[in-house]
Write a structure and sequence with these properties.
Elements (H helix, E strand, L loop, with lengths): L1 H9 L1 H27 L1 H5 L7 H24 L2 H6 L1 H7 L1 H14 L4 E7 L5 E3 L6 H6 L3 E5 L4 E2 L6 H8 L4 E7 L8 H50 L7 H4 L2 H26 L4 H31 L7 H16 L3 H30 L4 H40 L14 H58 L5 H32 L7 E4 H18 L3 E6 L5 E4 L1 H18 L5 E8 L3 E9 L30 H11 L3 E7 L2 E9 L6
Parallel strand pairs: 7-9
Antiparallel strand pairs: 1-2, 1-5, 3-4, 3-5, 6-8, 9-10, 10-12, 11-12
Helix pairs in contact: 2-10, 2-13, 4-7, 4-9, 4-10, 6-7, 10-13, 12-13, 14-17, 15-16, 16-17, 17-18, 18-21, 19-20, 20-21
């Protein structure tokens, strides 16, 4: 049962039936609303005698009687009017009023009047009754007028009537005589009022029922369209309807224009429709049907486009803007940019000059003011556009300058969006972004390679420790054995020395890798730089004396405290002293100077190298690089690299200078502040 119901829901017959019912309901709804709006006065009235048009007709008849029988006698006699009928009617306002009054009185059928001149006793009436005044008073709509006021009935033209009655001796009695007879406006309006009232309930019920039916049918149609597109995307891609290929803005404009034309024709034919003219009814149906089909097809197309996504890709205006932007971007790219600048600047200056000259000439020669206004507006518009374009370009240039500054400072994550920049500098910004991306990739690759090397050194060093420990232990065991051969004892001594050196080298490798990668913890504290140097001197004094080195320490202040990690700081000084011991010229002096500047404590060590320093200073801090290129000394080439890494880890500065055979190393560490 469920499968059958789904089949019915998706069948073409059900869709056609829903469309037909929606169309029919739309016609009924529009017709009902038009009926109610057109007959709003009748719908809101309680009875025919409160109908505004009825009151207007009654007021017009009373005014016409007063104009014809009272005002006429004070203006001109009837014979003279007939003699000059054409001039009177065509020229004077009074003649037009008299003509209208004559036309109204000539068609009187259900309107009765009684006019009496109280001074002469003259009576004018169309009532055939023995007591005309009493007869008129018995009618439902009755009015009495004298030269002082209007009694018993509200009239729309009471001011005009009193203007004529004031200063006369007339009394006017008027009423609509019932029952109404066929043949005048009162009867025709009554018939129409009765007919509309009888239709009103049916129209309201039809309006409500058809509105509900219309909403239900449209909901069914739109839901089926939405699910149909979803099913298309899920199962197989069907060809797009031709109407969906029309640009959305063109489709919208066409639908709006066609609907406007239909609305105009609908309003024009609405009056005739209510008088049941077959031709007008046919036009009414055709116009409303055309409007319904237009907007239903437009709405369904919009639904399908929305479901498929990328709605903006089918809007002609946006496509044109994108193509113009791409064209401008291409024109301002590279060398063409300069050519365009050379072309645009003279054109801009020439246009300003010509328009300004025209405005000045127009003012001097007193030309038409609107010409000056139009040209002046054009001149202002051109300059405003130039100002906006230049401002946009300068903002983009400012963004690019900030981006290059950030990139030069190492901030490779700084983002710039060329699509949001002026077309003048969009290509330039895109090139900067490409450079930033290339630098970022290169830095990431370099960091990745450095990390891999560090991990390799750490892992190899760790793997070497285990067999080395075994070697050291077995050498120690061999030393305890009673070995009689002097050669064997000599070999054991060499093994002990080399294994110890190898252990130091491995430990240096591990520490160097940790220091360069920042994996060492740093505990900042208050460190006395002078005291630390003296301790290092005491520890190395005996070795220095054996090497014939004379250590000279000078300090401008014995209390120079720096913010550093004492353990790492000791390793830095130890490595520097070891470097001095290994590579200094025998019998030379070593100068150690301890000082400070405004921000840092400074340690300077100078010595004379025992071998020529034919190497750049910056290479000495690289791993496994030594000043002794022949590598005849016992150094590993890691001491200065470790010292530099530990200094950077503590936010200090490490610098090496070479002047001939003079070797100078400077270490700067931030001074300790009491607030810290």
């Amino acid at each position: 049962m469920d499968i059958k119901w789904k089949g019915i829901k998706r069948s073409n017959m059900a869709k056609r039936l829903a469309f037909f019912l929606a169309w029919l309901s739309f016609l009924v709804v529009c017709g009902s609303w038009g009926f109610l709006i057109k007959n709003e006065q009748i719908v809101t009235c309680d009875n025919y005698y409160s109908y505004p048009k009825y009151i207007s007709n009654f007021s017009s008849h009373v005014a016409s009687v007063v104009d014809y029988y009272i005002w006429l006698k004070d203006v001109k006699s009837e014979e003279n009017i007939m003699d000059n009928e054409i001039d009177w009617y065509m020229i004077t306002e009074e003649g037009i009023k008299l003509y209208n009054a004559t036309q109204t009185i000539s068609n009187i059928l259900n309107f009765g009047y009684y006019i009496k001149d109280t001074q002469t006793g003259e009576v004018i009436t169309n009532v055939i009754d023995d007591e005309p005044i009493e007869f008129l008073k018995k009618q439902r709509t009755y009015v009495y007028i004298n030269n002082r006021n209007v009694y018993n009935q509200h009239l729309y033209r009471a001011d005009h009537i009193m203007e004529i009655m004031r200063g006369t001796n007339y009394e006017v009695y008027a009423a609509v005589i019932e029952p109404l007879k066929s043949g005048d406006e009162f009867y025709d309006d009554y018939i129409r009022y009765t007919r509309v009232k009888s239709w009103m309930i049916f129209v309201i019920i039809s309006l409500i029922a058809c509105s509900i039916l219309l909403i239900g049918c449209l909901a069914y149609i739109f839901s089926g369209t939405w699910k149909g597109i979803w099913q298309e995307q899920k199962e197989e891609k069907k060809p797009v309807p031709i109407i969906d290929k029309v640009y959305l803005d063109i489709h919208t404009l066409g639908a709006a224009i066609l609907t406007g034309v239909c609305a105009f024709v609908f309003v024009k034919t609405l009056d005739d429709y209510y008088y049941n003219e077959p031709k007008s009814i046919l036009v009414f149906i055709v116009v409303l049907s055309l409007a319904f089909i237009t907007w239903l097809s437009y709405s369904l197309s919009l639904t399908r486009r929305t479901k498929r996504g990328k709605l903006s890709d089918n809007i002609l205006f946006i496509i044109i803007l994108r193509k113009i932007r791409a064209f401008i971007k291409d024109c301002f790219n590279g060398r063409i940019f300069r050519a365009w600048i050379l072309l645009l600047l003279p054109v801009y200056v020439a246009v300003n000059g010509v328009l300004s000259a025209i405005i000045v000439g127009a003012i001097v020669n007193n030309y038409y003011r609107h010409v000056i206004i139009i040209i002046g507006f054009s001149l202002v518009l051109i300059n405003v556009l130039a100002f906006v374009s230049t401002s946009s370009a300068l903002r983009s240039l400012s963004t690019i300058m900030e981006g290059t500054k950030q990139i030069s400072q190492g901030n490779l994550d700084y983002e710039m969006n060329p699509d949001k920049m002026s077309p003048v500098f969009a290509a330039f910004a895109e090139n900067i972004c490409n450079i930033r991306g290339g630098l970022k990739n290169a830095v990431e690759e370099a960091i990745k390679g450095e990390r891999m090397k560090t991990e390799l050194i750490t892992n190899v060093s760790h793997d070497l420790k285990t067999p080395l420990t075994s070697i050291i232990n077995y050498v120690d065991l061999l030393k305890r054995e009673d070995v009689e051969s002097k050669k064997a004892k000599e070999y054991i001594g060499i093994l002990e020395e080399k294994s110890a050196r190898l252990r130091v080298l491995i430990e240096d490798l591990v520490e160097a890798s940790k220091a360069s990668s920042g994996n060492l913890s740093v505990n900042f504290e208050k460190v006395d730089l002078h005291e630390l140097v003296l301790q290092a001197q005491g520890e190395y004094q005996e070795k220095m004396e054996k090497a014939g080195l004379d250590i000279r320490i000078s300090s401008e202040d014995n209390n120079i405290f720096v913010r550093a990690d004492g353990r790492h700081m000791w390793r830095i000084i130890e490595n520097l002293m070891s470097n001095v011991l290994k590579y200094s010229l025998r019998g030379s002096r070593v100068y150690i100077n301890i000082t400070k500047n405004q921000t840092d404590g400074v340690l300077i060590i100078k010595n004379i190298s025992a071998v020529p320093l034919n190497i750049p200073a910056e290479r000495l801090t690289e791993r496994f690089v030594r000043g002794d290129e022949a590598r005849t000394t016992e150094g590993s080439g890691l001491g200065l690299s470790i010292a530099q890494s530990l200094t950077a880890l503590q936010r200090g500065k490490f610098d090496i200078q070479i002047d001939g055979d003079l070797f100078k190393v400077t270490v700067e560490m931030p001074l300790w502040k009491d607030s810290q």
